[in-house]
Sequence to fold (303 residues):
Amino acid sequence: MKANSKEGYKRRIGLGLLALMFTLLCSAVPGFAHPEEEHTLRFSAIPDQNSTELREKFDALAAYLAKELGIKVKYVPARDYQAAVELFKNADIELAWFGGLTGVQARKAVPGALAIAQGDSDPKYYSYFIAHKDVPLETSEDFPKDLGKYTFTFGSESSTSGRLMPEFFIRKETGKSPKDFFESAVGFSGSHDKTVELVASGQYQTGAVNYKVYDRRIEKGETDSKSVKILWKTPYYADYNWTAHPVINKKFGADFIQEVQAALIGIKDKELLSAFPRNAMIPAVNKDFDGIEKVAKELNMIR
Fold:
């Protein structure tokens, strides 16, 4: 009896260890779907704003999509911009709210990936060049030529509105790279919210930021309008987009990407739209972002 009990105990321990090893092995394989996730649509978003606020808003969006599509939907946070691209590349997510640049990077990495929706404001997006109140530069319709005298921060290195397009306009207006134009080394704050905070506090004298984030912070009183000012508004460019991984149709059935697109475009709830923030979602296609891809190639940010 005791011998049999001991052997049974060893057998259970052995099976338990095998199960643990299998779980760990599977979790290390990119794109592996655990049984409970086989019918779950997973999506992420570039962390361009406060991560806690994004989690709350995108969890609500997941609930909406689950109801509309009749499947489980899960929001998967990304630690930074490139992490969101890697999640998509490895099929750890099937849908993502990307910026213009990260969307181009993701679609180039995954043949068959499609831009399917964008905000109503995204075809004509723009950035602000901002400055601390004590910087002796004023708002102008022209690029501030003396900007190079002051400390400056971009947002994330992979941000369209916080780095790619601001750098493009710096080069276009001055004929110099940021390294050559600015007298001090430029910074990278990591997000638009952080850029505004750094400039408003004077830790950096100037910076480039997504106009929607700046306007929201001023409107909500998150940033004192007397501590920071807008120097210049860039020309328009295309920016954010929802990009769908081709695995969606394999996972949920032919043409399911179209159903996802319809659900996104069909969002009417203002609270849900505030996650972006946008007034509405409209259709998008890959060619809408050809201009972003061209600029990214010119700046050697993609091949």
Observations:
- The chain has two domains: 36-123+239-298, 126-233.
